[in-house]
Amino acid sequence: MFSQAEDQSIAAAPPLGRETLARVPKSAIRNPDVLCEAYDYPQPVAFSRGMRVELDGCAMLFLSGTASVDERGCSVHPGDFAAQTQRVFSNLSALLTGEGADWHDVVRTTCYLVDFRHYEGFNAIRNRFYAEHGLDPVPASTCVQAGLCRPELLVEIELIAMVPKDRLPADHRLQEARSHGRSEEPRRPSGGASPSA
Known about the structure:
By secondary structure, the protein is an alpha+beta fold. Helices cover about 25% and strands about 20% of the residues.
């Protein structure tokens, strides 16, 4: 497959390690007021609520699949598809707010329904939510039927958003304000239930 010279060149190459590779700056997205971290669950799960990836001129926000869970990681609204869907949008809104973003910054969603017979109801709630937020255009989206990690969960949404680089996360703005002698608190999401999962 490779010539002897190529084999020797490959063998002589220094091993790839963290110290030899340039990395794109990234940080975990958190909002413990609405969602605990998955690794804090009674049976820990290894994923972040989301990742903020810093690029030239913008930051991309990748939010993990988020379901109807509370700040303790407990499922809420079992059996109530509409309430679970609203809770999912509330949880995602809180995670976006913590990053200085909102639904106008969302470019794509992937929606998971355990039963596609709920699609009409899901779409009605999503359309109303987008209209209430004045989204035009609405994000690109895919909706699929899939099993979720807990049998009582009926809907889950993940998303991608993009924000200008100068729009900083809420906790960074708070730290910056405090360092300048101001005591501004970051804005909290409006609209009721605490977001999670």
